[in-house]
Amino acid sequence: MKRLWFAVIFLTAAACACIYEQYTVKTAYKEITAVIDEAVSAENENVKIKYCDEITKKWEKSYKTISLVSDHSVFQNADISFGMISALAEEGSDSINDTLIQAKSELSQIYDSSKINLSNIF
Fold it and tell me: Which of 24, 100, 103, 107 has the fewest beta carbons under 10 Å from its own?
């Protein structure tokens, strides 16, 4: 009987960890992509810099949590892109929108790779 309770507790803990991971990744994805969309559409350079700083802060906060529960191989390129955003915005670089779109694409890849579906389970 003790083994049965251990199995129930273990399965419950595993299910809770999976739910936490899904919630964390989905929330971070929605928050960051919303700010990226606002930054891409911003015309004023000061506003774009403000949005880029916000994106960087949200990424740093989310990265710590998401990296604990997801595959690390997807994060390296995204971390590089998100790390360049604030510097490019402050320089007034013309490629900032391209970098924002690339970062959004990489974040989408992280989100898609952590979704619950048959191809990710098996």
Answer: 24
Task: Kindly tell me the number of DSSP H helices and DSSP E strands found in the chain.
Answer: 5, 0
What separation in angstroms does the CA of 115 have from each of 21, 42, 73, 109, 110? Answer: 9, 30, 16, 10, 9
- Rounded (10°) CA dihedral 97, 103, 104, 107: 180
Residues 39, 56 contacting (CB under 8 angstroms):
no
In 3D space, the residue among 29, 57, 55 whose CA is nearest the CA of residue 42 turns out to be: 55
Predicted TM-score (pTM) of this structure: 0.81
Closest by Cα among 66, 58, 70 to 32: 58
Taking only the tens place, the pLDDT of each residue in 68-82 is: 777 777 778 888 888
